[in-house]
Amino acid sequence: MNKNYKNSQTENIAEDLFYEYRLGAKPFLKWVGGKRQLLDQFDNLYPTELKLKKIKNYYEPFVGGGAVFFDVAQTYEIQNAYLYDINDELILAYKVIQKDVHKLLDFLAKYDKFYKQLSEKKQKEYYYELRESFNLNRFNIDYEKYSENWIPRAAQIIFLNKTCFNGLFRFNSKGAFNSPQGRYKNPKILDEHNLLNVSKLLEIAIIKKADFKEVKNDISNESSFVYFDPPYRPISTTSSFTAYSKFNFEDDEQMQLAGLFYDLDQQGHKLMLSNSDPKNTDPNDDFFDIIYSNFNITRVDAKRSINSNAKKRKAIKEIVVTNY
Questions:
Q1: Given CA atoms 324, 320, 230, 81 in this order, what sign does their dihedral have?
Q2: Shortest CA distance to 21 belongs to which of 63, 79, 68, 65?
Q3: CATH of span 90-192
Q4: Distances (CA, A) of 234 to 149, 172, 245, 308
Q5: pTM here?
Q6: Domain ranges (residues) in the chain
Q7: pLDDT one-digit tens code per residue, 141-185
Q8: 25-86+210-322 fold
């Protein structure tokens, strides 16, 4: 086969995939610290090579709610995505949506119908009963091997996320989900259209339960775009309230991540990282300015809603680090 013709065919297939995957998929979980509100600002900070179609591989070592993945995968012509997270339950949910979305929808439809016919009092009782059952059953799940019992588990994850307080996907040090119930008149437990779109989009993804350092073993020799969204460094004494896994992510881990950032920069990849800005509360706290001193740091505006008192929710600064 003529080499030029073969390259042309590959480009046409990639373009077809690009338009096929512009589905309007969005994060399927509520996510404290999610990036949907920042996407317009992020679009100005993505690497030019991504916009020029020179980058085909996307990596996200802390996928969380996945807002940036959904944005990049549906706006730019990437061919492969590698999504990682250390949270067992989160990765389980992603894989079920990728592999068995229709069975998942059946379970969610049952939860949706049953929960919404209950009185407010009964809803509260049901939420805490299901949360307790969910926590007990984690000892019966093999998180390393996909199986049919992952599907009802994923449905419970989505149900709890949609009905808990503020979408707070939070686990204690023992790995038990401990978010209280939220008050919603009509929680969107079943979002069939979006879940089908998410499943379609995840066809280009390799999904792994892994520590952030795993990306170094997987990353392609070709120029790639890596977006890091680690657990944020606390900017107040109560910020750890938002922890979403049993694993701590302290300053030592932040510095290890910075070391990985330097290593991948040396390999020629395009890198972008988000974090809290400690200068919100301490103008003299130069932690990130020091450990990322060789790179570009941009401060963006974000409105975070973790405070239960809406009047105390205000815009704060977050940092975005890039190596370009």
A1: negative
A2: 79
A3: 1.10.1020.10
A4: 36, 17, 15, 18
A5: 0.88
A6: 25-86+210-322, 90-192
A7: 999 999 999 999 999 999 999 999 988 888 988 999 999 999 999
A8: Rossmann fold (3.40.50)
